[in-house]
Known about the structure:
VC0467-like; alpha+beta; single chain
Amino acid sequence: MRAPRQSTKETVAGSLLLAHPKLIDPNFRRSVVLMSLHNADGAMGVVLNRPAGKRLAELSGEFALTALAKVPVFRGGPVQPEQLVLAAWQSRPDGFRLHFGIEPSHATELLAENGTHVRAFLGYSGWSAGQLENEMKSSTWVVADVPGDLLSHPQDDSLWRAVLGREGSEWRLLAGEPEDPELN
């Protein structure tokens, strides 16, 4: 099987990190992480496929009467899980645009624009300087481009299977394995 694709860019910001099938850490098992920052000081992103089963209005009454009331909430990662992070993304003809860590007022403005999706995340995924690079050398992550149809997929465990499967036939085979090998 071919090794996970290593990014040829100096940064994986704006890409997806897909957990390698052998990764068993419950924080990241079969996760899809949208990377918003990656530089010499560290890296940061949010897990896209861990829905919390709530909307912003259920999380906090301050959103109940706003345009953000129905925005879904996800578990963004193990770092500061009580912190609320708002993100918006837009698929445009000139490419994918990410707005990360935005204020509620800016999220409301963006939500009014056609083709904009807003998500709320409790916590985030973070790596200190050099930590992500070491994990990538250990084949912990598969780097993938953000597919144009990312938001058309359910934002749950099936997202990992769908995006990893696009990385080649070997990855498609591994993505299709059951959680419990005895069910194979």
